[in-house]
């Protein structure tokens, strides 16, 4: 009797193991079928005709408030709006960064670019750029640059894109007045007392800009973007500017993402009393429409 019970128990256990293995096999098979169906959906969607009109907007908002031994406040807004119609597109980029320490302003930067683009093919396009930069602590009242360019998509896959953009520009720089106290450069806020003023000046010149744009879909909900640009005067190679933005974003809903950004703004010939490199590390809430 005991032998019969043991045998029956072994048979039942074997059946359960076999059923579990079969269920696991069916689960894996179903997952493979779902993945194949998703690939087919993406392939079919890519074959659909593109809409004649498309509007996309992206806004990044970051804010930091600190109180204690020192009071500080900082925020940044980074916005991009792109309007596409047929082979034409118009893109507006706006960046504003502000901070203050113990009630004294320490950063006030505004950067705007308007880019018109016409697609000649899936990879090649021509464009026209208009840029304006106003940075209170850079030594420039403002900078303007404008001119035509060409953009080429070097790499375009399901997960990565790499584009190179080159422009021939007319540039205009308005350099601010400088102040010294006893021969030493004085920064804002200017101290009370005898401060000597040296009048600023303007500089207009022919220039060029080379830009790299890279994006990588690391995971389904995680994306990395890199923008790197180099703008220089033709007749004076030492007069150049480098801008970089490295961004990592994590999708948390259909509209919102959390982002980490690292900005580098470099001026090779900084204004009198200014440093060459400005770096900003920020956390942002991102909304895509």
TrEMBL record:
InterPro entries recorded: DUF481
Keywords in alphabetical order: Coiled coil, Signal
Residue stretches in coiled coil: 20-47
Signal peptide annotation: 1-18
This protein's name: DUF481 domain-containing protein
């Amino acid at each position: 009797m005991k032998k019969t019970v043991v045998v029956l128990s072994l048979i039942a256990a074997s059946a359960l193991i076999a059923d579990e293995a079969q269920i696991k096999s069916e689960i894996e098979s179903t997952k493979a079928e779902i993945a194949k169906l998703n690939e087919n959906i993406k392939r079919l969607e890519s074959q659909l005709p593109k809409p004649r009109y498309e509007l996309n907007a992206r806004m990044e908002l970051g804010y930091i408030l600190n109180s204690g031994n020192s009071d500080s406040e900082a925020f940044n807004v980074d916005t991009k709006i792109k309007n596409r119609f047929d082979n034409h597109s118009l893109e507006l980029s706006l960046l504003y960064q502000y901070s203050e320490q113990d009630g004294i302003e320490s950063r006030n930067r505004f950067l705007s670019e308007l880019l018109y683009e016409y697609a000649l093919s899936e990879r090649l396009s021509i464009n026209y750029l208009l840029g304006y930069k106003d940075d209170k602590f850079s030594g420039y009242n403002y900078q303007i640059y404008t001119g035509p360019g060409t953009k080429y998509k070097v790499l375009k896959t399901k997960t990565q894109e790499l584009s190179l953009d080159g422009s021939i520009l007319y540039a205009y720089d308005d350099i601010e007045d400088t102040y010294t106290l006893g021969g030493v450069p004085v920064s804002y806020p200017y101290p009370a007392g005898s401060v000597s003023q040296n009048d600023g000046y303007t500089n207009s010149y022919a220039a060029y800009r080379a830009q790299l744009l890279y994006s990588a879909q690391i995971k389904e909900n995680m994306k990395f973007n890199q923008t790197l640009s180099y703008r220089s005067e033709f007749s004076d190679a030492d007069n150049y500017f480098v801008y970089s933005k490295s961004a990592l974003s994590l999708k948390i809903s259909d509209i919102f993402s959390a982002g980490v950004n690292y900005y580098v703004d470099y001026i090779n010939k900084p204004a009198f009393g200014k440093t060459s490199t400005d770096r900003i590390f920020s956390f942002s809430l991102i909304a895509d429409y």
